[in-house]
Amino acid sequence: MQSVVFGASGAIGGALARKLKARGDTVWEFSRSGPDHTDICNENMIAAAAQQAGNQLDLVIVATGFLHNQSHQPEKSLRQIEPGHLIQSFMINAMGPTLVMKHFLPRLARRRRSIFAVLSARVGSIADNQLGGWYSYRASKAALNQLVKTASVELARTNPSAICLALHPGTVETPLSAPFHKPSLQVRSPDEAARDLLAVLENAGPGASGTFLDYAGTPIPF
Fold first, then answer.
1. CA pair distance 215, 13, nearest whole angstrom
2. How many other CB atoms are there within 10 angstroms of residue 123's CB atom?
3. Which residue of 97, 150, 190, 208 has the fewest CB atoms within a 10 Å radius of its CB?
4. CB of 42 within 8 A of CB of 68?
């Protein structure tokens, strides 16, 4: 199988790439800090990556994300919203994956099942939001979910065998989430998360396109 992983230098993306290679896939790995420097927000770089990976792709996974930086923690109230941080969140969490969809969805295999998957987050669910806070992260992931849903509608017209969906990996031991772990949370290793996510994709049928699933394959409301 021909597979592509964006965010391959990250904890989850790296685990996904290793497991795909272990099962025998040819894997194209792209990341901002890897040897083939690819900024997910740079359309020219995404277009070049698509050209490099070629056509008839079986699986494309976008395992990138942005929660906070050293100067700006996730907002607990409207008073803490800072425009630059909000824009950065939307660029990395929503615009970047959308650029990958723009250039890679047309390259999915057409005569067999193929999948495009992005890592979203449960906090991006509007229906599930009971706690508030984390404005930029929640809003950018909600935008990502809408973009995936919309792309899946178009994809169904042009490539009915293909699937486009969003995945929630759970709380994973990564530098992104480490500062926010609580004793009550079930924190899993990147290898466990990658194993479960690939199992969900392995079992995903045509009806999964346009959905938002957690690592157990359970639908999450948008």
1. 15
2. 18
3. 150
4. no
Residue 175 lies in a domain: yes
Cα-flanking dihedrals φ and ψ of residue 220, to 5°? -110, 130
Domain that holds residue 143: 2-214
> What SS3 class is residue 31?
strand
* Residue 206 predicted with pLDDT over 90: no
Q: CATH number, domain at 6?
A: 3.40.50.720
Tokens of 159: 């490539």
Encoded tokens for 168: 């929630």
Per DSSP, helices labelled H in the chain are 11-22, 43-53, 83-90, 96-104, 135-158, 190-203
What is the per-residue pLDDT across 105-148, written as a single tens digit (0 to 9) for each?
999 999 899 999 999 999 999 999 999 999 999 999 999 999 99
| Cα dist from 56 to 45, 99, 196, whole Å | 20, 19, 25
Asked if 31 and 9 count as a contact pair (C-beta separation under 8 A), the reply is: yes
Number of domains the chain contains: 1
pTM tops 0.70, yes or no: yes
Q: Does residue 64 fall inside a structural domain?
A: yes
**What is the pLDDT, as a whole number, of residue 71?**
75
Distance between CA 119 and CA 98 in Å, rounded?
12
pLDDT band at residue 69 using 50, 70 and 90 as cut-offs: confident
In a domain, 172, yes or no: yes
Domain assignment present for 98: yes
CB 168 within 8 A of CB 11: no
